[in-house]
Every structure is written in C-alpha cells, then in structure tokens.
Amino acid sequence: MHGWAMKTLFMMRYSFFGNSGWRSDVSRDPGQLFSAQRLKRRYELLRDIALPSLINQDDQDFKLVILSSKLMPAWRKKQLLKLAHGVLGKDRVDVLFKPQMSAPLAFKSYLHGRYAADDLLTQIVLDDDDAVSRDFVGMIKREAQAAYDLRMVGKPFCFLSFPKGLSLDLAGETPEVSTRNIPFTNLGLSMVGPAGVHKNVYGIAHKNVARNNPARVIYTKQPCYVRTVHDTNDSKAVRGSTLIAPEKLPEMIEKFPFLQKFFPEAAPEAENWPMAA
Fold this sequence. Notes:
Structural class: alpha/beta
Mean pLDDT: 89
CATH topology: Spore Coat Polysaccharide Biosynthesis Protein SpsA, Chain A
Low-confidence stretches: 270-277
Order of helices and strands: EHHEHEHEEHEEEEHEEH
CATH architecture: Alpha-Beta Complex
Number of helices: 7
C-alpha cells in the first residue's frame, strides 16, 4: 500500500555539471569543476562532514540520493560509490551520474521513477560540504507529519525551514564555529508531499520559498545544521555572527559528532570518530 508511510530523503548535488538556475563560475566550467584539486577537496568534505552527519543520526531510517555528473573521471565515480556505499550501505544510497541537464529535472525524473505518485516523501537539501544535527531525522519526521496533516486546502505539499544553525569556518589558520540564524536558508530546507507532485526541493529559489508556497519556519533551541566555509564554496559562504566559546564546543560536538575531527581537544573522551579515512 502506498501513500501513508512517509519516507525521509536527503537530496545532494556532488560535482554536478548542470544547465539551469543559479550556478557559480566554477560550476559553469568543467575544467574547473572536475580539476584534480577541487575533486579531492570535495571528496574530503563529503567524507569528513556530510556523510558523518548522516551515519551519526539517532534515527537511521532515511535514504540519500546523490546527483553527480557523467563527465566526472571514472575513478572518481568509483571512489564516490565506494565511500557512500561504505558509510550508509548500498540499500540507502542512490547515486545518479547524469549528463548536463537541470538538477530539478534530474531529481524529478528520479522521484517519479522510484516512487509511486502518492508515496509521501520528505525531501531534504543536504550539500556535500554541510551537515545536519544528529537528531535532525527524528525531528523532521515529526515536523513533516504535522505540516502535512495541517496543509493548506488545495496544496498537497509544504516547505519547512530551520533557521538556527552553525557556521564552521575552515578558511582560516584554525577552525572556528559561530552561530547562524537565517530563515529559508538552503541548509536543511525540506519539502513534504506526494512523490508525484510537480515540485521538488531543488525546483525553487530557497530565498523566495514563502512568496509562492505554503511554508513553515521552525525555530529550535539548538542548532539544526552546519554551514561550512572553505576554499571551494560555490555560493557566497557568510560566516556566522557570534563565535562559539571554547567551553561550549563539547556541547556542539554532542550535537554534531563530526566536529570532533576539527576540535579534538574539545571532544569528550567517550566519543569515537566514526569514519574511516
């Protein structure tokens, strides 16, 4: 029976060469996008930040879809598959190597081919260099179900925004963490609704979500995501507003265990780094 067992789906672009929507200068040039240095850096960020934040989820009932490019070197494709499948397992990761096309169209085609039209999905944006808190899956399941139950008449979907997060700055000599609070940020932006709906979470401009769509902004006491600032950001990565004090770092590591890799002196001794290099 389809429809009422809601599925949780993280959707990620990884070195994807697309042709629509906003694109950075690098993403428009295959020579830059697939340079050895950049591919190495993006792999490290995926390995050290995004994937650890998923394997550390308290609720492991979710799936990851990675959209990448057919133009990526073959050995890098194998490396990506080995990493993603090794961390989450083949049954929980679908990797799509697509030709130059629209990312929303690629994801829409995947959703329509993989799920029944009335299957309820929560689609979540997760960039390959960003992270979500370890309780995010459990939280989004509760919030998505409530949002769907209270959806507007005539609207089969609803967007959810989680403004409170952190910035992890890796661009300086030493890592720093600061607070971040931006409604309708792309970080953790989610959409709940049937798989057959005409929209998906990549088919919108996140800053304009609330103008044309039903949406809910959910403020939490603790941060829900980490935005990473580094040397290969595609979009403008604004640093957070207030630095996290050193004595608060253990609390942040409890929320985001992958941070212990960048702040080993603050990591609780009982915690073990869950990822193999």
